Amino acid sequence: MQLRPVDVVDDISAEDFKKNYYYPMRPLVIKNLAKSWPAYQKWNWDYFKGLVGDQKVALYNNVKSDAYTPINTADDYKTFGEYIDMIKQGPAAWRIFLFNIFDHAPELINDFTWPEELMKGFVKKYPMLFTGGQTSITHMHFDIDVSHILHTQFSGRKRVLLFPNEEQYKLYRKPFEVLSLADFSNYYDAENSKIDYEKFPALRNAKGYDLILDHGDTLFMPAGYWHHMEYLDSGFAMSLRALQPSLSGKLNGVWKLFGMRGIDTLMKKTIPHPWYNWKKKRIFENADKTLQ
Predict the structure, then answer these.
(1) Each residue of 96-126: pLDDT tens digit?
(2) CATH number belonging to the domain at 2-291, selected among 2.60.120.650, 3.30.450.40, 3.40.50.10420, 1.20.910.10
(3) CA 244 to the chain's CA centroid
(4) Contact call for residues 177 and 286 (beta carbons, < 8 A)
(5) Which has the closest alpha carbon to 237: 12, 48, 92, 81?
(6) What's the CA angle centered on 205, arms 199 and 210, to 5 degrees?
(7) pTM for this predicted structure
(8) What angle is formed at CA 1 by the lines to CA 196 and CA 30, rounded to 5 degrees?
């Protein structure tokens, strides 16, 4: 893989952000965007446990989903309080994603502000909390609604691998899915990396970004960006989503969310083996074209 660092700024004007990152679709880390929010000092494990510790949550492990697994199938369930107790004890490869904590504790909405000076179109009903124990992994994918994301890390450190959407075939994207067939686990550790360049040679040509998010850092991920995340420490982050301003961008998100995913789910249920075989053939055909 051909990786470079993401630009990092302490602060940025709306004009510079739109000109140099939003419109060109380039990622950026903003160090101070969230530091004026009450959430920056206020949000921690004990605070959340007191608010929503009794809420049942879906947990996900580090095992990559196979060809026959419906998307977003949980691996276990616990209360949020039980989960917090577990990951505070040390490495625990369990994560929660798309947890709308604000449904259960709406007062948390007052702890941050929507940065509408940077972009419009925020989906304000769905700010999402993402949590993970140390060593947990979010495998390579892009968000199915194809929204712009402001992802703020509130606790712990997280390592992030990013690729623009046009690199999808070099990443061995599964047709009708938002996932990569390849495993990027420990990509930054030569001795323990699971990347198989012999099986997936096009990965060598994929051009992307590598970064680490610390407490308070906000990552701007342009719409459609592929991302793989590994929790270096137990921690949590919040994503604020903004729809693309163009009609074509919005329609693309609607198609992937309802059309593409619906077709894939139906085919997995009705003809799983032929569907998988067709997909696998197409994955490698598309990757081979990038090598030629």
Answers:
(1) 766 778 888 888 899 999 999 999 999 887 6
(2) 2.60.120.650
(3) 17
(4) no
(5) 48
(6) 100
(7) 0.90
(8) 125
